[in-house]
Amino acid sequence: MAIRQRMGTSSAVLGLLVLAGCSTSPFDSPPSDTQSAIRRLSMPSDSAELGSVYRAEDAEQKSSGMVVDSSPESYVRYALFHSPTVERAYQQWRAASERLPQVRALPDPRLNIGFFLDEVETRVGPQQAKVGIQQTFPWIGKLQDREDAAAKGALAAWYQYQEAQLRVVEQVIKSLQDIVYLDKAIGITKENYALLRSLEEVVRARYRVGAGSHPELIRVQVELGQLEDRVIGLEALRPSYVAALNAVLNREPESPVSVDIDLPNSVASENAEQVAQMARQWSPVLQSISQRIEQERVRTEIARKDGYPDLTVGLEYIVTDEAANPSIAESGDDPIMLTFGINLPIWREKYDAGVRESIARRLSISRDFDAQSNTLWAQIYRAWFEHTDADRRVRLYEDSLIPKAQESLSASLGGFRTGDSEFLDLLDTQRTLLEFMIAAERARADRGKALATLNRLVGRAIPTRDANSSQSTTPQRTHENGDES
User: Is the pTM of this model over 0.85?
Assistant: First the structure.
């Protein structure tokens, strides 16, 4: 009989162990659709946002390397894959997502084993030892709230990961714009140097035959020296621009960068107010703060439920030896005891303070949301002005100033050959054209850099049109922030 009772007891203890091993409390309802979606998003296999496409090929890419050609997309891909800033944000998101299985699990069951140093004599025999197991079940809904709070924290980290990628993309595009501007400025200056060199030969020949003056020859030689110095300065500046780009790419500072990078010639087709409206929906900065606000809202509920008692269920099994008189009924039977217990949250000030703390933290984050929103709107309007103002300057130089300067230079060259114009007028015209052409390239670079800033602030590529046409297009976000439209 004692053996049968021990077998029944073992089955009961095993049942409690199985119940204790469940990941959720039996008092909790099934997770909501929102929680299930959050849980799926927090798993790496379902990552469909920025950067996930090349994360899946981690081992292969690290072994074979990534090819960087003259396209800006290749630089963006390389930077997103190799940037330590992106990798840090990615690992922070992974760490936050790993909180979910930790907080939704029940507390560990407790196994108690005790031996009687002085056996307790009972009618059915002396009690020798006691074995017990206990499992605590948190208050109704507490585990779900903890999981929901952790999931919202993981989503906040996910948006921070997106923000890190967007910042890296912006840095890559801005560095490429600077390098392209510098290369074109060098090329324009060299072309003007070659033109001035040919004029110097003409002036020198005229001076030999007495048709030219010595001051003219000296003046053209001074201009040549200034242009030569300008070329040397621009070429000396390029390694610093290349080092800045390689720093974003996580490469050696001297790693080569192509001299024929083809950057898009795009202009925003939306006004500042429309861009700001897009940022309200897509900005990862605001999305991250919103998730943190919701996380604190759930934590407030958790703090309230911490003031409610948790239930503890247990089984105790007492090992009992045979009685001195074997004829006694139930001799040697092992008693089993089912126990229930609750904690007593009587120190109410502690729990009330926890609720107030969570509410204050949520209000603090809400004010941070307002501050970040105001800063974001100001940055968008500033970047939009810089972008449109640079586009205005580009059109001014391309459509008006440069053609007129070229026409004036042609007229001065013709007049100089026929002797109808002074050589100093020709130099002034040539110098003006040089400055206009370099200023146009600077404006193009400023336009592209401001557009990259707008894309980063909004959280994705904004609609654009080709600068040479009026048709509006929405570019693939693979180039701007690593995703596709």
Answer: no
